[in-house]
Design goal:
This protein has 5 helices and 5 strands; from the N terminus they run E-H-E-H-E-H-E-H-E-H. With 104 residues, the protein is of the alpha/beta class. It has one domain: Oxidized Rhodanese, domain 1 (3-Layer(aba) Sandwich). The chain has a 5-stranded parallel β-sheet with strand order 1-5-4-2-3. It is globular and about 35 Å long. The protein starts with a strand and ends in a 7-residue tail after the last helix. The mean pLDDT is 97.
């Protein structure tokens, strides 16, 4: 099944409607600390296979990184595991460039 995608603006609308969505940031801790999408939970890419049980099945899991490459790899892997995943196009960089709030 193809992975779904959202733009940063679409993600902002989803978060405004339901701030309790599952949003994971697959960057490294230093990148996460420098600035992230508010509400994003740190789950570095290399930890996803060992923490996959922490993610809900049956509800979308939004995945973000810096520019969309790592998150797309994680989305493809999670999709193969049976998760409903959504990649954030352009990542945190596009989120910030779009004028959306950045949490530090």
């Amino acid at each position: 099944m193809p992975v779904s995608h959202v733009s940063p603006s679409e993600l902002a609308a989803v978060l405004a409607a339901d701030p309790s969505i599952t949003l994971i940031d697959v960057r490294n801790p230093d990148e996460y600390a420098a600035g992230r999408v508010p509400g994003a939970e740190l789950m570095p890419m290399h930890t996803v296979p060992v923490r996959v049980q922490d993610l809900p099945k049956g509800a979308p899991v939004y995945v973000v990184c810096h520019s969309g490459g790592r998150s797309m790899q994680v989305c493809a892997w999670l999709d193969n595991q049976g998760y409903d995943v959504v990649n954030v196009d352009g990542g945190t960089a596009a989120w910030a460039m779009g004028g959306h709030p950045v949490e530090r």
